[in-house]
Amino acid sequence: MRRWPSPLAQVEQKVTTTRRFQRRLFTAAVVTPGMRLLRRLTWALGLFLAVLCVLWLDRAGLHDQQDGHISFVDVVYFTFVTITTVGYGDIVPVTERARLIDAVLVTPARLIFIMIFVGTAYELVIQRWVEGFRMARMQSQLRDHVVICGFGAVGQMAAREMLGRGLHREQILVLDIDEDALQAAADLHLTGLRGDASRADVLEDAAVERARGIVVCAGTDAVNALISLAVRRASKSRLVVAAEGVDTTELLRHSGADAVVSPPALGGYVLADALHSPDVADMLVDLLTAKGDVEWGEIRVREEQAGVAPQRLTEYVVIALRRQQQLLWPWQPEAQHVEANDHIVVLRPSQGRA
Known about the structure:
The chain is α/β, with parallel strands linked by helices. It has 11 helices and 12 strands. The chain folds into 3 domains: 33-138, Orthogonal Bundle (Helix Hairpins); 143-261, Rossmann fold, CATH 3.40.50; 293-354, Regulator of K+ conductance, C-terminal domain (Alpha-Beta Plaits, 2-Layer Sandwich), CATH 3.30.70. Helix content is 48%, strand content 16%. The strands form 3 sheets. A 6-stranded parallel β-sheet has the order 5-4-3-6-7-8, with helices on both faces. The chain has a 4-stranded antiparallel β-sheet with strand order 9-12-10-11. Strands 1-2 form a two-stranded antiparallel ribbon. Strand 7, helix 9 (249-254) and strand 8 form a beta-alpha-beta unit. Helix 10 runs antiparallel to helix 11. The radius of gyration is 33 Å and the shape is rod-shaped. It starts with 6 loop residues before the first helix and ends in a 5-residue tail after the last strand.
């Protein structure tokens, strides 16, 4: 999970930067489509002028089929029709040096000239059309999927566990603003979408309203809470949020999360168990990973099964009983018989090893 520097560390960093470089303002250059087009036209013009200069200096090697005289206008005309591969044949190179210049200089310049304009057309027109088509196709296929908002260490581990539990790669969509994170998703053959997960339009592109569930692990608790509020406003799907602090769980629940998990707290529990009860720690790790021998499972009680003891409904080991929002243990009197719509939590062989 990414960690932002503390306010004190930020102040110290600004002071250090000011003392060393006397620079405090950092801005990113914004390149608009118009600026990209102007830049490519500048390259094309520079290439044209370079070829024009060379041909003008070697104009004695050219021959005009009409009047036999080569003027500056003739050289401009010959440069343009040659570099654009039109070539009418009214002006031709006649000396060996002129033909060598045409073969060694003009031909590569012609190819570069074509690539500049083809690249411009692709970047400004074709690429946008292709991206729009791919986006529309992806959105039409996104149903019953899982959206992971934030693909840091926690998000990557969650994705690997989902894959290990049988979820198809096409059913996982990654939302992040960092290109490196999206590249990590692509390395796992997952679909990545660059954007701020707290924005309504980005969530709409991710089709969160049709998602099976959304996992939020984008960074600090404040960022996760903001994303949770935006997700809950756009979707009623199950929302699971990662908590960086151990005391922010209840706050994140109020942001709309169905479940809040604190990776630091879980790690601390397992570390403590590993120190005092290594067998218990090994069992917890086995339960939490998709590659383990056993896994958790839930069985929903049907109406016709009401009144039956939990142990009679399954051949697996019954661990607990969840009734509405209350967790009941097998030794409690309320858990001796099940009710309709209860959920029985059991231990069962892992699907990958069953």
